[in-house]
Amino acid sequence: MVFGNTWMMSVDGTASRPWWASGVIWTRVASTGLLLVGLGLYGANLTTEQISLPLVPLVVDPALPVSSVLPIRQGALAGQNLLLVTIDTTRPDRLGFYGNTDIATPNLDRLAARSAVFTHALATAPTTLPSHASILTGRYPHHHGVRTNGLPPLEPDQTTLAEILSEHGYETAAFVSSFILEKQFGLAQGFTRYDDETHDEAAVMGYSERRADRTTDRALEWLRASRERPFFLWVHYYDPHASYAPPEPFEETSANSYDGELAFIDQQVGRLLHGVTASSDQDALVVVTSDHGESFGEHEEQSHGFLVQEATLKIPLIITTTGGLAVPVRIDNLASQVDLMPTVLSLLGLPVPDGIDGVDLTEARKSPRAVVAETHYGETVYGWARLAAIYKGNFKYVDGPNPEFYDLAKDPAEQHNLFAQRGEEAHSLRRQLIEIRGQDADTLRASPMELDRKSIERLESLGYVAPAPWARTGSRAGPDPSRMVATLTEMLLLATGLEHGHEAPAWTRPILIALGKDLPRDEHELLAAYEEFAMAEPDFAPVYSQLEWLYKRSGRMGDAAASRQRFEQLVRPGP
User: Fold this and answer.
1) CATH at residue 388
2) Residue 295 contacts residue 481 (beta carbons within 8 Å)
3) The pairing of beta strand 284-289 with beta strand 81-87
4) Would you tell me which of 31, 37, 201, 574 could form a disulfide with 302, CB atoms 3.0–4.6 Å apart?
5) What is the pLDDT of residues 373-400, one digit of tens each?
6) Structural domain total, the chain
7) Is residue 59 one of the residues assigned to a domain?
8) Cis status of the peptide bond prior to 177, with omega within 30 of 0
9) Which of 234, 215, 188 is nearest to 84 (CA)?
10) pTM
């Protein structure tokens, strides 16, 4: 084998990692989000295009005046139509109106120039289903109960924005572009039309994702029908989610494939806005946002889901009307996805239900508010610890096995954990986090349904691991995801050689030559590499699921069963 020793002892007697377990080497490895065939891995194969997009501060048009509230009075848009656009996996710092000069997003830029543009809007979770549930209910995940993609679904006892608007005479329709938002997961509540046909044969992205132009076509077809009542239209685009494969000319004209996807979405948003304007003589309230962001190696995470970091929690948010605001503004105050439901209802002159977590963004606040976010993804798929974050002013506290405290005004990329130096302030935020979330916030509700094999495969085809059935009944203190994500990337890297034949991707080759190493060239070498990896990381759950698969392919059913048993021991919550 070409992988060297497993653990080597340093001169001081501590264990040192083998060459392939160096997080420093692979910090900038980019993930396409596709799964290697049969492996069922998060963030799966590593692309030959090294996308390196470091998180940068947002730069909004300096001509926009700064405001602390929306410059629209409550009820001013009563009876108007509502368009909600959610663009999956979108980092605001990659959009033109937030300062990315390498991209052409003319439609969104024009819209933003006539909008309230939020510079500190946050997701409630770095995964698609929980965050969309928060957008539609105005509640944090610990209240609406959807903690990760897949299961449990949003329960019928939760009240959605669509249900409220339908009760007040609105026609409601949704056009979503990913299996993750299929109606079986509960978000169709209140929608008369819920178009989730991601298996459409005309969709070029596969049966679990529908490309933006196809989704726009469906929405425009619905808009062309005559109607006498106001409408609520929700359109969800999935394209910026990995893998990044923008159609031409956006692949050719963009700085990278991710920006190409965003430029393509901009074109489709332009088509959609034109259709909304043409469908009615009156203005429509327009909200454009995202479910979460994307990481390109920040904190050694590829893609999103495991960490509550800025790259994956910070989202774009603009609120306007099709006619534009009389006074466009920039709003720097904290805003959360839970604020969208009460704000929209307030602007439309409709009552805001009790029991929600969001606030009306048209109202001034007497003191700075705190907002929270969480992730249970690592817990439900690998038995890792959950992470939760609280923001207040410029400060952020991350609660987990290794607490973190950041001054985001001075350190927007979270490079300097100040917990040791600012412990008193950190503990103050932790107390507020517990007050907001409650003592039982991390107990996961059991799901009333199970995913079938086809649903699991469709979820995995989008780059996610399906939650384990035993992981949904309680919370556990497992390994710190902040330390696990680098190891996960290292493990995934071992399989790169299989995807690209005898040679590793071009950008990794100089590193490998310098190290005098190589990557596995066939399944036999890959199995040996994973066995070595398991010896080095005996408590790392993901490697045992890969060993199980490879042992089965080699006919070693006893070893496969032992690997499955070890995986379940690590992932299953204790009594």
Assistant:
1) 3.30.1120.10
2) no
3) parallel
4) 31
5) 999 999 988 989 999 999 999 999 999 9
6) 3
7) no
8) no
9) 234
10) 0.88
